[in-house]
């Protein structure tokens, strides 16, 4: 596998994308920090993406300062998700940049116990940061919560879109440090990313599946999908 300095992926469904401008902003900024201007490359390659079918392209900056795109078919969209907690400190070397740790995160996820779909990473104080390939959000009463943004976490495009929706819907948003134990006692926890949108956590470790009959995820997933715009 080619080591990556920067990477960014998003779902293209029949020529529409959620949060494309935010993906561009994140990729271009990370490339600039690595000394490479990527604005023109991004705009040219986005204009070449297919306007039909389902795709999950990955924009890349490689160690040779080469910019590239992998046009990949989109994997199946997941629904409920089983989560395990990583045993040990956060092993990432560049948590705020998508790319350098992708291979490591893939291995962590493959080795997750209890056949978990995702694995949570913890800060030095034992509070939740994010999952290997997803940001974390949860509900406390009628407040939509996220881990503190000043922690070592990737700036999640989907989490930013959820904050926008919350503002439109008049829903209070809060940033709070939370332990895995506290999350497991919370009514509703979501893992969110560009591919799946929202996946509610239905099981922790080896615990049985919780059906979550009153989940808000379907309504908010619909809000997310309504934000998809056609490729330029």
From TrEMBL:
UniProt keyword list: Aminotransferase, Transferase
Protein's GO biological process: carboxylic acid biosynthetic process
Signal peptide stretch: none
InterPro entries the record matches: Aminotrans_IV, Aminotransferase-like, BCAT-like_C, Class-IV_PLP-Dep_Aminotrnsfr
Superkingdom field: Bacteria
SUPFAM superfamilies found in the cross-reference section: D-aminoacid aminotransferase-like PLP-dependent enzymes
The UniProt record lists the keyword Cell wall biogenesis/degradation: no
GO molecular function term, any single one: transaminase activity
Family: Belongs to the class-IV pyridoxal-phosphate-dependent aminotransferase family.
Family annotation (PANTHER family): AMINO-ACID AMINOTRANSFERASE, AMINODEOXYCHORISMATE LYASE
Listed name of the protein: Aminotransferase class IV
